[in-house]
Amino acid sequence: MILKIFLKELKDTLRDRRTMMTMLVIPLLLFPVIMNVFISVSEDFQVEAATKKIKIGMVGTKDNLIYQELKDIPEVIGKKEIIFYADTLAMLKDLKKDSIQLAVFVPINSTSILKSMGTLPIRFYHNATDMGMEERAKGYMSIIEEKQRYKRYDELHVDVSKINPIQTSYINIASDKEMIGKLAGGILPYIFIAFGFIGCMYPAIDLFTGEKERGTMETLLTTPVTRWQILLGKMGVVVLSGLTAASCALLGLFVSIEVMDMIPNKELLGIVHSILSPGFIVMMYSLLIPLTVFFAGVMIPICIHAKSFKEAQSIITPLNIVMVLPAMVGFFPGIELNALTAAIPVVNVVLSTKELIAGTLEIGHVVISVTVMVTLALLAVFVSYKRFDNETNIIV
């Protein structure tokens, strides 16, 4: 009977265009497009910031060394035009108006400072909201500083090797797979959670609140089927919808990588392929299934209680933020999966996925995470049943 109810409700759900859009079309088609546009725009901004012609304001005279050095730097790292100002205030005023993109103050006695073997103080001003300008300034000065440093070594007849008693090397022992997992692994569970929740939302509202509005719930209750069978049949469709939406998001990500060539680096592409292995997929769904059941179990009591589709939607939509917000933990560095975080719902799924991608997942933490999510899923099912068994909630 549960299977028959499930198939009947699934057929009705598949006829709903709104549900199909949120479950299939949006994650499968729009996600690759959005990712491709986002990456393309980011790359364009980075290239533009690194190569566009900028105006540099300078307080000083043309005979100062910094002006000569800046002028001689090749335009490989970006074209530039140097504009002189009589005072710092006028220069900073133009910097705020974006008439110039960088401002530099060079002391008037810069030549004498360098000749006396002193340290020349240089102040660069930039607007932090103008992306890439600080990097341009540091790039210019690193060239000038290194050139002047070795020039002074020669003037002092100093052997460079004698003034560097220690040579330090920093070696990264983390594999590329671990780096991807720790730095970018937060996006995959975030996508799953967001689309899984949205995929559950519309079927849950339609199968419970929608039935009440249409007046078909009473007809269904007159059939010789127990209420828990009706509930499980309907809940099965809600859970399947959430899993389908999350799976389509994963498929959309795969299409983005393979078809749209979002990762041109072949070595990095091979690492991504090794991550998206059958074992990874199985482990992901072992966390995703109880999470989706939990989502369904949270939504269904709300849908049973709501008197109209609009009321249910107005309650569940803000709930989306509450459920998805913990998923952003995956973007924060330094938060690791341990016995404590493995016991926090949603957060444990995100951190477990990050560790899974990195290949550093400990079995004990997985057991805690899965146990917590399965327990919450069963509790959510029980609460849904108690609400559904209440006559006043299912009859309008």
Describe this structure in a few short sentences.
By secondary structure, the protein is mainly alpha-helical.
Q: What can you see in these coordinates?
A:
- The model has no long low-confidence stretch (mean pLDDT 79).
- A four-stranded mixed sheet has the order 2-1-3-4, sandwiched between helices.
- It has two domains: 2-35 and 176-394, no CATH class; 53-161, Periplasmic binding protein-like II (D-Maltodextrin-Binding Protein, domain 2).
- By secondary structure, it is mainly α.
- The relative contact order is 0.12.
- 67% of the residues lie in helices and 5% in strands.
Blueprint of the fold:
Blueprint: H1 2-14, H2 17-51, E1 54-59, H3 65-72, E2 80-85, H4 88-96, E3 102-105, H5 110-115, E4 123-126, H6 133-155, H7 176-184, H8 187-214, H9 217-221, H10 227-258, H11 266-275, H12 278-305, H13 309-324, H14 347-358, H15 363-388, H16 391-394
Parallel strand pairs: 1-2, 1-3
Antiparallel strand pairs: 3-4
* Count of individual helical segments: 16
Task: Note the beta-strand portion.
Answer: 5-15%
Helix content: 55-70%
Largest sheet: 4 strands, mixed
Number of strands: 4
Which geometry do the CA atoms define? elongated
Q: Runs with pLDDT <50, length 5+?
A: none
N- to C-terminal separation?
Answer: 25 Å
Q: Which structural class do the helices and strands define?
A: mainly alpha
- Round the Cα radius of gyration to an integer and report it: 30 Å
Question: Widest sheet: strand order?
Answer: 2-1-3-4
